[in-house]
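As a warm-up, study this chain.
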Amino acid sequence: MREPSVSRTTAGQLSPERRATDLRRLRSERFDVLVIGGGVTGAGAALDAASRGLKVALVEARDHAAGTSSRSSKLIHGGLRYLEQLEFHLVHEALTERGLLATRLAPHLVRPVPILIPLPGGRGVRDLPGRLFRRAYYGAGVAAYDAFAGVFGGGRGMPLHRHLTHEGTRRVFPSLKADAVAGAIRYYDGQVDDARLVVTLARTAASLGATVVTSARAVGLIRQAREVTGVRVRDLEAPADSPDAEFEVHARTVIAATGVWSDDMSRMLNDVGLRPGIRVRASKGVHLVVPRSAITGEAGLILRTPSSVLFVIPWGGHWIIGTTDTDWRLDRSHPAASARDIEYLLEQVNTVLDRPLTTADIEGVYAGLRPLLAGEADSTSKLSREHAVFEPMLGLLLVAGGKYTTYRVMAADVVDRAAHRLGAVRPSRTADLPLLGADGYPAMWRDRADLARRHGMPVGVIEHLLERYGTLTRDLLALIDADPLLASPLAGAPEYLAAEVTYAARAEGALHLEDVLTRRTRISFETAHRGLESAGHAAELMGAVLGWDEGTRAREVEHYRSRVEAERQSQLMPDDATADAARLGASDVRGFAADRGADDDPAEVSSSSR
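Now compare it with the structure written out below.
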């Protein structure tokens, strides 16, 4: 628990000093719950446990949301296509969570985005029956979607759907081929900066007293007889030969929320002959980012493809186009998009656009892996998005599967199991716990023009900050008041302020240049230079907070440059195998080989008994 005299905002700052303090706590204290994994489920579990008054620690091998949780379609949604698969309970659950996030938990991070369902078909009398059938069929599905979300009341957080004529569709989305649609249905889902939501979850957990440490890799389980009592952790920021580089963390319960790395936990149990009863398959999803000027439209699109669905989603001054859905069995830390993936996405979206997109239009590409519970389906797109909680060994809980939108439900389920084991009876509170930046956000947004006048800044800049930090915008404005130079735009990315980089290192746990350019901001895929023109300036700003000397700044920039070049090279490769090999040409900035070694050598991750 945090000290009563310390505000939530202050207690939630993940500063360099806070990391040093939390490392000492990991080494010296015993926790009720230790969470492995800093993605959305792990951060959500840490928050849930901390909100119940439990003593909590979270360790993450790289950065918050460094894996799957920063590489989604940026949607908080119920999964419209799951209605066709008759997974009604999953849709209702996800839409309930969407409403909570948009109205109560994180209204500064989750907001409505309109999406069109184009209705194909000719416009002649002969095609009338087909047009009527498709409109009725899709209309019934979207009406059910709205009904599951709750037709009335502010808790749904999204406007209701509406049918559009052919002319109305063309007015909303002029770039649609005139002969490709007979009309459309416009509905709404939630849009989110996925990485920012995860960082905010982690900070909110920290504000309630949780110990939160990134660059801390779990390398083995600690056991007493047949009970897990903790984890061996390697501090990846410590020199390899340092006696403090590896240490034990003791806990009454360990929760592994490791997503596509869940099978690594199985390897940790191999030496005692246990099978965890869970197997996760990784499905690769690739997204393209193109400038807003490449497509003319005021809403997104959802298109049916031969294997799944394709989204075209407005994202500030850009469009996000995705996703693929293919099995992936190669490097899990840095999944690579191949030329084949890019060609597939362009081919699918060009079926409805009046001006076809080409590779020359692409500003950015990113690839992520979805953790799906393994089943009998041949295609990953047919695997369930349900989640599961297992206890393969006393003191160890595994949570896997699910979808980003339902992270809070997954977290509550696994912490319920942990709390039952610990004898704690307090239920989950997270449905009523606003994340940092949410309290007072509607009023601050309403008064944004006055806030801009008082600080001598354009209203658009204040809106940008509010939509990323909520009421924590005050912290950034205080930085600017103390150093007006921080109000200047970041080199190569004028939509971001220098203050945001400083704040990321000072309060959001960013330890490396990559953390800022790929996750605290999204410069790595929002600019054609992929962040290379911003790297030097960002390194100077981060270095001033983290104490980097000139050599360290140069190494950070070079690491980032190598990463970008490896990704660009991988995107020219014809298939997954060659793309993966090209992407692995750049070493991880945290300097550990275990990402590769754990995949290739099960002995890398071992258990230890006490």
